[in-house]
Amino acid sequence: MKRTLNPRAWLGGVAAMLALHGSCAAATADISDYPNQPIRMVVPFSPGGITDLLGRLVADELSQLYEQPVVVENRPGASGHVGANLAAKAEPDGYTLLLGTIGIHAAYSIYSKLAYNPSTDLQPAMVLGASPNIVLVPASSRFKTFGELLDYEKKHPGKLNYATAGPGSSVHMVTALYEQMIDTKLTYVPYKGSGPALIDIIGERVDVMFDNLPTGYPHVQSGKLRMLAITSKDRQPLLPDTPTIAESGIPGYEAGSWFSVALGSDVPEAIVDKISADVRKVMSTPEMQIKLQDMGITLIANTPDEARSMFVSETEKWGKVIESSEIRLD
Questions:
Q1: What are phi and psi of 257, to 5 degrees?
Q2: How far is CA 40 from CA 135, 219, 236, in A?
């Protein structure tokens, strides 16, 4: 897919650099000096969720590579769109990055009104990685297996409630797909991130949550939550005894979460490509691979063009779920 930039903004930026430096060579040298000041990493959810943990991991690694601070700024709200809008409208100089999600890049049609357009106001540096979700219930829950949960939900539509990281978040979407495939409904309870949602399911104020593996599993290990199933197509090496939803009564079910590094659409392509290459470099080391595997995240780290293509296919997939489930917010 052809890369696109706002021609007026791009030409204006080049003209400004030429005026300052007098030549295209000087403008290129200016870009090659990037970064020469602190960078802001916008995490559009509350602290404690997988997006926050992953954003801080990337920020720490880039800080060491660049010898410049990469400061994480949590901006929760509207399932990530508050922070994403902030990143989209930041100065197009490459000093504001966004740790993006499915909800921002592929499930934004859930909102009928947004202050920006995610498909045109943001551009990807890469899809960073992906992770399955896990089905969680409180440790004291009556449900000991996924089959028991599924049977109850079919017989008692709307009786159980479920937590998400916000409308249109990956946690919401994988649950909406589940509802669609079993042809029943649960009562929806949105939060501003997985962190506060996990607090309430541990406190038994919520019945079930399809949380991201990296943030939900530690609470299973501590005994605070019970894990019933995993949303991936196949069982995970880290959790060989945990059945998939597909093998537990819903054939064909497969879903998960993925995360991007993105910038405003007017940021010059040269800077976007540099960030993409640099994040790929720091996240592809053997040490980082071990950290990601321990978190249950599979590194993707693709190119900007590959990420754009993935955005298109994922938007189509989740758009169908949103339409068929009639999920709409103003």
A1: -115, 150
A2: 33, 30, 34
Cβ-based neighbours of 228, under 8 Å, separated by 6 or more:
135, 136, 137, 143, 145, 146, 149
Domains by residue range for the chain, with CATH? 7-131+257-325 (3.40.190.150), 133-248 (3.40.190.10)
- Relative orientation angle of helices 170-182 and 146-155, to the nearest 10 degrees: 70
- pLDDT score, position 8: 41
Q: Is the peptide bond between 157 and the residue preceding it cis, with omega within 30 degrees of 0?
A: no
Q: Who's near 210: CB < 8 A, 6+ residues apart?
A: 133, 134, 135, 136, 162, 164, 171, 174, 175, 178, 231
Using the 8-state DSSP alphabet, how is residue 112 labeled? S
Q: What gap in Å lies between CA 250 and CA 234, rounded to an integer?
A: 13
For the entire predicted model, the pTM comes to 0.81
pLDDT by 10-residue block (mean), the chain, 330 residues: 41 40 39 92 91 95 97 93 97 97 93 94 97 96 96 94 88 92 91 90 97 92 97 89 95 94 97 97 94 90 97 94 84
- Tokens representing residue 111 in the block: 């909102």
Sign of CA dihedral 290, 291, 292, 294: positive
Q: Contact at 8 Å (CB) between 122 and 265?
A: yes
184, 201 contact by CB (below 8 A): no
Distance CA 280, CA 297 (A): 15
**Which H or E run includes 259?**
strand 257-264
